[in-house]
User: Fold this.
Amino acid sequence: MLFVDSAVAFVKWCRPFTERFGYFSGVLLGLALRRAWWAGHEGEIVQIRVPKFKDRIFLRSKTSDALVFWQVFAENQGYFPVMDYPKLIIDAGANIGLVSACLAIRFPHSRIVALEIDRRNFEMLQRNCAAYPGITPLHLGLWFRQAHLSVANPLAEEWAFHAHEVETEAGGAIPATSVRELMQQLGWPRLSEIGLFVSVKILHNPCHTEES
Assistant:
């Protein structure tokens, strides 16, 4: 009975995936995500195939990457409604690139600029967005002016980093730019032509069932 109860709880936990991708694909996604959360050593790369995605999704085991995946695909944070077809999308704080990849599939003719200040997150972002030529990953922060930033809480979970402004000479300082300056660099002369801003935050940890 314990096994049956656990199986029923797992299938129920997979419901957001099965409703979006079908039963078989949804359960496989759930199994892969559980592996990313529990299996292997911390930082081990886990590969997940998501229907309609051009390539695999790469997550780091036992990190907040699994939480990001849950929020994007189970809580539909990558599928929010958009009234108009955006010409330019700026994903500020793109983390490992899952929302950027979702948007690239939804809006294949849009240009997407994915900004991330943490080096390790940025490396994962590059891997997850490599199959989408419309995405431009930049190891860059978005600020109210041109400046240099540093991660203010480097010991936090990978999704919880926030930045503060530092002197240019500070060790590990990361360049940052404003929206207007970024648009000028991209060749977009008018602020009104930006289609969308994205900033994803993880609010809770759903990667377990009561029986886990």
Observations:
- The chain has two domains: 1-75, 76-201.
